[in-house]
């Protein structure tokens, strides 16, 4: 049986933290930034955890990563 492969897109977008949570970057901060407020752009900085309702999908895309 061949090894299960991690989805390349998931590998680039998610990082598994030591506690088992998965961090992801914020959406809506890449382009069309002129019409967004400074407050909105500031609050989109940094990484956040993947919500528990989406963890099943992320775990399927990243087998063998300890999720």
Automatic annotation (TrEMBL):
Claim: Ribosomal protein is one of the keywords in the record: yes
Keyword set, alphabetical order: Ribonucleoprotein, Ribosomal protein
Q: Indicate, by first and last residue, each region the UniProt record lists as having compositional bias (Basic residues).
A: 1-16
Q: State a GO cellular component annotated for this protein.
A: cytosolic large ribosomal subunit
Q: Matching Pfam families, A to Z? A: Ribosomal_L35p
Gene3D superfamilies for the chain: 4.10.410.60
Can you supply a Gene Ontology BP term from the record? translation
> Which InterPro entries does the record match to this protein?
Ribosomal_bL35, Ribosomal_bL35-like, Ribosomal_bL35_CS, Ribosomal_bL35_sf
Q: Does the keyword Transmembrane helix apply?
A: no
GO MF entries: structural constituent of ribosome
Query: Residue ranges of region Disordered?
Result: 1-24
Q: Which interval of the chain is the signal sequence?
A: none
Concerning its family, UniProt says: Belongs to the bacterial ribosomal protein bL35 family.
Q: Which NCBIfam families match?
A: rpmI_bact
Q: What is this protein called?
A: Large ribosomal subunit protein bL35
Query: Per the UniProt entry, what species is this protein from, by scientific name?
Result: Rhodoferax koreensis
